[in-house]
């Protein structure tokens, strides 16, 4: 028997576009900056591991200095198409930004069609960060076969794992008939979650 169907119930995702910031040398990055963030700042090092793509977007990975409420930190941030990301190394990887907003980002990997990474947005860090959730499309009727589920989850995990070395916690793979890219929770309608998918 396949798992029971689950309705897509998550509300529509925020559609406000990210703000674009231009660096002194003309390279751009994009994120969300609230009015209440007036006392915070992000300092991006020039040169080094960060480069400007042909389309003008910042790319690469480096330590970025963040200041907020008088406190300073220097997290490692990877830039993909100008978006700042944490807990993921995107260097040299071909990934697609399916959707990005002030709530979360969804990344697709062409190596495994129908597999996605969910990165919630951290307003304090002004970056999207990976927190352990992957999404895998698998027709619900096929999920009646436990071996098929196991193989699908393993393939998705193995494909994304090289990008997630900075993340030490177990992974969670949520199975869906179809990605709900326009919803706050892109895995809304998930009929099965495989917890503790070790990596």
Question: What structural keywords apply?
Answer:
elongated, 3-stranded antiparallel beta sheet, mainly beta, 1 helix, 199 residues, 11-stranded mixed beta sheet
Describe the structure.
The protein is mostly beta strands and 199 residues long. It has one domain. Helix content is 8%, strand content 37%. It has one helix at residues 146-160; strands at 19-22, 28-31, 41-43, 50-52, 58-63, 65-68, 71-73, 76-80, 83-86, 96-100, 104-108, 115-122, 127-129, 133-137, 171-176, 192-197. The strands form three sheets. Strands 4, 5, 8, 9, 10, 11, 12, 13, 14, 15 and 16 form an eleven-stranded mixed beta sheet that branches. A three-stranded antiparallel beta sheet has the order 3-6-7, with no helix packed on it. A two-stranded antiparallel ribbon has the order 1-2. Helix 1 links the parallel strand 14 and strand 15 (171-176). The protein is elongated and about 60 Å long. The mean pLDDT is 91.
Number of strands: 16
Secondary-structure element pattern, one letter each: EEEEEEEEEEEEEEHEE
Largest sheet descriptor: 11 strands, mixed
Uncertain runs with pLDDT below 50, 5 residues or more? none
Q: How many alpha or pi helices?
A: 1
How many domains? The number is 1
User: Which value, in Å, is the CA radius of gyration?
Assistant: 18 Å
Distance between the termini: 29 Å
Would you tell me the structural class of the helices and strands?
Answer: mainly beta
């Amino acid at each position: 028997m396949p798992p029971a169907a689950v309705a897509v119930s998550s509300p529509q995702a925020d559609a406000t576009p990210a703000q674009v910031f231009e660096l002194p040398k003309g390279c751009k990055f994009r994120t969300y900056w609230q009015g209440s963030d007036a006392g915070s700042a992000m300092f991006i090092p020039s040169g080094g591991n960060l480069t400007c793509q042909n389309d003008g977007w910042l790319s690469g990975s480096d330590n970025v200095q963040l200041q907020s409420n008088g406190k300073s930190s220097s997290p490692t941030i990877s830039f993909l198409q100008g978006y700042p990301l944490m807990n993921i190394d995107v260097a040299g990887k071909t990934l697609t930004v399916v959707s990005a907003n002030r709530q979360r980002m969804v990344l697709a990997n062409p190596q495994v069609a129908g597999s996605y990474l969910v990165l919630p947005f951290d307003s304090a860090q002004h970056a999207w960060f990976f927190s352990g959730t992957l999404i895998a499309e698998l027709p619900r009727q096929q999920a009646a076969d436990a071996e098929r589920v196991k193989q699908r989850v393993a393939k998705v995990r193995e494909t994304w794992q090289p990008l997630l070395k900075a993340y030490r916690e177990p992974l969670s793979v949520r199975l869906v008939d179809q990605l709900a890219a326009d919803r706050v929770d892109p895995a809304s309608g998930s009929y099965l979650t495989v917890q503790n998918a070790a990596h």
